[in-house]
Amino acid sequence: MCEPLQVAGAGFLNIRLKSTAKQAVIGEILEQGSSYGRAAAGNPEKIMVEFVSANPTGPLHVGHGRQAALGDAIAALLQAQGHAVTREFYYNDAGAQIQNLALSVQARARGIAPGGAGWPADGYAGDYIREIAEDFAARGGNPRGDLNDLDAVRTFAVAFLRKEQDADLQKFGVKFDSYYLESSLYTDGKVDAAVEAMIASGKAYHKDGALWLRTTDYGDDKDRVVRKSDGSYTYFVPDVAYHVTKWRRGFAKVINVQGTDHHSTVTRVRAGLQALGIGIPAGYPDYVLHSLVKVMRGGAEVKISKRAGAYVTVRDLIDWVGRDAVRFFLVSRKADTEFTFDIDLALAKSEQNPVYYVQYAHARICSMFAQWGGDAAHLARVQLASLSSEKELQLAQRLAEFPEMLVTAAAELAPHAVAFYLRALAGEFHSYYNAERILVEDEALRDARLALCAAVRQTLANGLALLGVSAPEKM
Questions:
Q1: From the centroid of its chain, how far is CA 451?
Q2: What is the pTM of this model?
Q3: Nearest one of 110, 80, 71 to 415, comparing CA atoms
Q4: What are the tens digits of pLDDT across the range 374-390?
Q5: Fold of 18-35+350-467
């Protein structure tokens, strides 16, 4: 199956398949179709991937978009390895930011503009606040018609923005299996129960009128306050309670996709879970932290500022360049690297635009098959010995690498590896297509080359599907 091993340096070996094995993978791909690359996990796990989890205080911004693209692709990769995966959205619908949202909408409904007399100090100034206020007024306010009922304003505003966020995610092609409300952790007593468990374990102590947790016992650089002197909880406590629910729901593995601004919470949440003494293992949960996204258009940066209301939303990006480009671009780099989203590049019809380059390879093959007009059903059984050129064998080698690439990408929670692979495969196909004539008169050679192209088309489609990107037949 393999040629003699070659030492590649630094302890690596180059494994090259013999030409017969390379040819055989083409038939394997055509037989398996959309299943090619998928595997049955030897030890399948019940896994939760939590991502986006935006505060319901405004539209989804481009950072949420990167989380959505990463989280959905990670979940798809894990499913492709045979794991049972649940996608969950955690609604942060409790805390000061929700109060500020309600006060902002209330002020707008009273005709107060951002920055004007009576505008809340930490109010949200985005134009969407005006839209919520107008909608609230148009519906007659609350059942009693009393704008002074801040709870009614709060409930309406949160519901409005949840609906908006859900619509954006639907437009982005992201579907969640479950939703969890932060507020339910309080109403159901789960936050109080978590704190009581910390006290019972002996890991909590009182100092300066506050309740502290010995997080230094679990790798933190200092102990952390759990309950402040005024009786309120610090922000990481509900996170601990929330992760207890994940554990008790049977998720042995949990992956949280969040921005790097959550880096400081990682150690605290893990320490809090350890301090409960209920058997949750160290290192639970896993985190994929993504860096900032900078949006460029016309050579200038489009600033992101939620407070000022001038930030790029997921909906903006989709409207500008289309869902496929947004999803591919946002997973095309390692999550922990800063990414520049170039609007002009995403619109370009050139090989510099990675999603166009990959999709065009798929469409090009579809066009070629339409030109041929034959029945492709028999291609899985044709003789492939005539596929002997360097470019043909190189393509077959690349196709054979797809399943193992997916194994590695899933294990490393690295969907960018799929994007890299697809661009490399598309590049090799375009090079082959430009160098060789596919629809030759020799029927045996033509069918062998068509089989190779069909295998490339299937593999491109399978990889794009894992990233939530379409494989168009025409462009």
A1: 33
A2: 0.92
A3: 71
A4: 999 999 999 999 999 99
A5: Isoleucyl-tRNA Synthetase; Domain 1 (1.10.730)
